[in-house]
Amino acid sequence: MKVNQAEFVISAVGPSQYPEDALPEIALAGRSNVGKSSLINCLISRKNLARTSSQPGKTQTLNYYKVNQDLYFVDLPGYGYAKVSKTKREQWGKFIESYLMHRETLRLVMQLVDLRHPPSKDDQAMYEWLRHHDVPVLVVATKADKIPKSQWPKHLKIVRETLGMDKGVQPLMFSSELTLGKDELWSILEQAIAYGEPEPEAAEAEAAPIETIKEANEHEPS
User: Fold this and answer.
1) What are the pLDDT digits (tens) for 130-152?
2) Cα torsion through 38, 112, 64, 54, rounded to 10
3) pLDDT digits (tens, 9 = 90+) for 54-75
4) CA 108 to CA 111: how far, in whole Å?
5) Is 79 helix (H, G, I), strand (E, B) or coil?
6) 147 with 117: CB under 8 angstroms?
7) Are strands 106-114 and 25-30 parallel, antiparallel or unpaired?
């Protein structure tokens, strides 16, 4: 997809503030500081549209970014940050859960994990929850530039096994610094939103993302 226009639209705190133009939505979930904002900026070839923060846990809303007239990226609050109170974490959890289960225009969740480290218990819980509720999910392993290339296969295997991903399904390796995985990720996102398909076919494609993602996201670690 060629990005001609990208803009921040709203920081939503509830369904009444969600956009009503029925564009497909791609949500980004992950621990604080896993690189969600950097990934968005990389995909749209902008440096600072999605603001990165040095303070984990700062994002407390659903941040909507509109790309062309084709889709929204929806940046979810980061999970697993210890300095956020238990009450606040529970509020975020219910808020995010409601969005993920009931938002009709949601087409895919990109769950970001840090390639350098085994997925945390929060990462595992999120992945299991998404799979249990049949929410289409793509695991994106970020910060690949932070470890030697020779270690990539080992770390991808750890991510896959720790999350309990199905056989033949691999995390997509990504680096915002190297733009590694950018084209492959866009290809998967285009399939998820049925980009470029005629309108009637697009409706039929809504149920397809899980399988198409499995096929499109197969790596063969060397």
Assistant:
1) 999 999 999 999 999 999 999 99
2) -50
3) 444 455 789 999 999 999 999 9
4) 9
5) strand
6) no
7) parallel
